[in-house]
Amino acid sequence: MTTHPHPAVITRYAEGGSGLDDATVWSVEVHLEGCPGCRSRLAGTATDDTRALLDRVAAGLAEGIEAGPDPVRPPRPWSAVHRRWLVWALLPWLTMTVAVLACAFVLASVRPEVPSLVLLLAPVAPLPGVAVAWSRRADPAWELIAGTPAAGLPMLLRRTASVLAVVVPALALAGAGTGVSLALALLPCLAFTAATVALGAVVGVRRAAVGLGVLWTLAVVLPSVATMHLPVVLRPGSVPAWALATVALAAFAASRASGFRRLSSHN
Ligand SMILES: [Zn+2]
Asked: What are the residue ranges spanned by the domains of the chain?
């Protein structure tokens, strides 16, 4: 232990250390940590102001301890659901998708001789929503979310499920209203969603959605409208092939889960 400071030094230290240089103040503090005698001398030389301050702090602490900790409000279940499942950016895209399907339904009712636009658009109906659900441009919290342990494929699947929860009933309604096969409306929709997720692991979800949408439109939708005939891929015999493709693509997407764990520039 260092030597006891002179009582006058302790008194001046108690008065705020005026007139003491930094080295003296520091040595007094080091000594006080290990010397109960000098601590009690310091307590005896405290000014009235210091005592009043200490009394106020002690009373405040005692009051706080008696009251106990502030109750922690449990998070509202809705806020968690909202954070995980919904991105507000999806709303306009989902509204647009439902509006396009409604137009296809109206057209099929007015002009039954035209190949069913509900069937032709079913595969690409969920793609705008899926692309936006995993787009860093549309989600202001993307960087934050992508850095969390829950990011990656599970989050993409939850958001994709949110999109399908809107698109699938809309497709089913439009399909039932126009009398087309429900399996032929829904299976291609699910297959293209799985294909977007699978391809998204390689080239990014947005690029995959845009690429598949453009490919389907050029290869199937435009020729069908031009020739006024439904393509063979949308005839009842193709249902097993669509079911098989959906399962295979979903399995492939699951096997590429690690592709969604990186913060890559193309997502
Ligand atoms: Zn001492």
From this structure: 7-67, 80-260
